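I hope you will forgive my troubling you with a question about protein structure. The matter concerns a single protein, recorded as an amino acid sequence and a row of backbone structure tokens. Please examine both parts with care and let me know of anything in them that strikes you as inconsistent. Here, with my thanks, is the record as I have it:
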Amino acid sequence: MAVTDKAISAIKTMIIEGELKPGDRLPPEKQLSERIGVSRNSLREAVKALSVIQVLSVRQGDGTYVTSLEPELLIEALGFVLDLHQDAEVLHIMEVRRLLEPTAVEKACDHLEEADYQYLEGLMAPLGPDSPVGELVEADIAFHHHINAHCGNAYLSSLLDGFASATARARLWRGLTEGASVGRTLEEHYRIINAMRAGRSDLAKVYAAAHVAGVEAWVIQGAHTGTKSQPDSPAAEG
């Protein structure tokens, strides 16, 4: 692993220093391994590792290329990692969301137009307490993605998208459905929309913070009671 790490570090340095740019093809394997001072097998392992995190792209019969290195591409692996986490670890994820998402909502207020608000309302309109979990999850992810994508910061938007784990949100929405909290959760979505539409970015930020804090409280209560849902818990969403 130490030798593989050496190869990873060398390729990373080449990218940071601009020797390799997005879209560039890596030098031939033999030439690159000799330059770094590692075996070709170690270099292959390094390339595999960097391919997993979307830094490199291996094209069969063509070579290995540096990807676009766009934030959304590099953070793509985060969703996979989050899907592996158990409910007890969700609290740490929710804490990060509570710190970041209200800021994204606040910043998005300057970039959303009436068509955007109509789109967001359209996502919520067909939903209700009896909606299938799959539809709730799909609309929820689309709702937050649309807002976050307009925050004006590609790194913040991509990071929050990375937390939009469909598997984790399905667990949360399933619990909300069982706990009769779906209606209140959807109302929180509308509250955020209305504040943003009114130009109250400060208020929208507060509503977003309360929104994420609600699910955090719901998860904590469920963990303490050993249940998946609490009928009287705060409204929350994934």
About this structure: Residues 192 and 207 are 6 Å apart (CA to CA).
